[in-house]
Amino acid sequence: MTQRFGFQVHATDGKARTGTISTPRGEIRTPAFMPVGTAATVKAMMPESVRATGADILLGNTYHLMLRPTAERIAALGGLHRFMNWERPILTDSGGFQVMSLSSLRKLTEEGVRFSSHIDGSKHMLTPERSMEIQKLLGSDIVMCFDECPALPATDDVVAKSMRMSMRWAQRSRDAFGDRPGHALFGIMQGGVTRDLREESAEALKSIGFDGYAVGGLAVGEGQEAMFSVLDYAPGFLPEDKPRYLMGVGKPDDIVGAVERGIDMMDCVLPSRSGRTGQAWTRRGQVNIKNQRHQDDPRPLDEHCTCPACRNYSRAYLHHVFRAQEIISSMLLTWHNLHYYQELMQGLRDAIFENRLQSFVADFHAERAQGDIEPL
Ligand SMILES: [Zn+2]
Question: Which region ranges are annotated with the description RNA binding (predicted)?
């Protein structure tokens, strides 16, 4: 097995690519969807179950783990992989996004962000250097630069100032990360929905040099149309021989659209979070299992799905356990959703490899347009 981080593109179809990211902890097939394990667990799932859905890599959250149980404690216990019993690759975010969305009493300066924990009010400081230190303590395979991302809509002036500070932080992150063979550091492009700022950000990152590049600052409320309009050009500003990661995306049709536009990696809490609120994602759109119409339905959620929820249980059962607030409801629906997402990624990878992405995407939209299964 390789001891270095690497990326190889096997095939392209239009702007879409399929390839392999190599790490000492295993390979990641791209385009890849990364389930989110916020607090060192993908909620309601055992790690081996997450693997069984087809996931090659998980995402962990710096902000949550630094507050509880702390990065130092995880390091003393052998690192995040051992701590959570997931030996395959882990990507950690920098904490920048969540400190801005979850913490209180924030003070943002050139140095970093001072804030109070949303858990117990304790005071903390995150800087590019501290974020690199935490992600090293966790033992993350793919480390993200510490950045700042203004909420959209924002004026060009606000977006530009924020982006330029993030680029200075990217240089500080690079310097603090140092040389760690087998571990990767990704830069994060900012610039909102403004093409010139996106290009300026990409140029700044490329001159520093990273192992991969993320498109940040999207999926923050701008809507799919605005997101796709940025993705129509932004991936083209990034090097072709490095992975491109779209952070925090998304719904199945967001994922398909992003892959069509040249994105290689994505993460989102959506499949796991929806699983806990009774929402299932299927080939034929979203199903709300708490809906009364499922209570006598002996059919599975999706007759073509091979996940345990669809193989062994009826809609009536899933409806019942959700209504009765049984824990197995979250387990089964989360499993199904993660399985559906990974199956979609496999379908995209195969289609790109076989140069038939366009017809795959047409079928994807046609199937969803049919709506959920016909009445009994
Ligand atoms: Zn299923």
Answer: 248-254
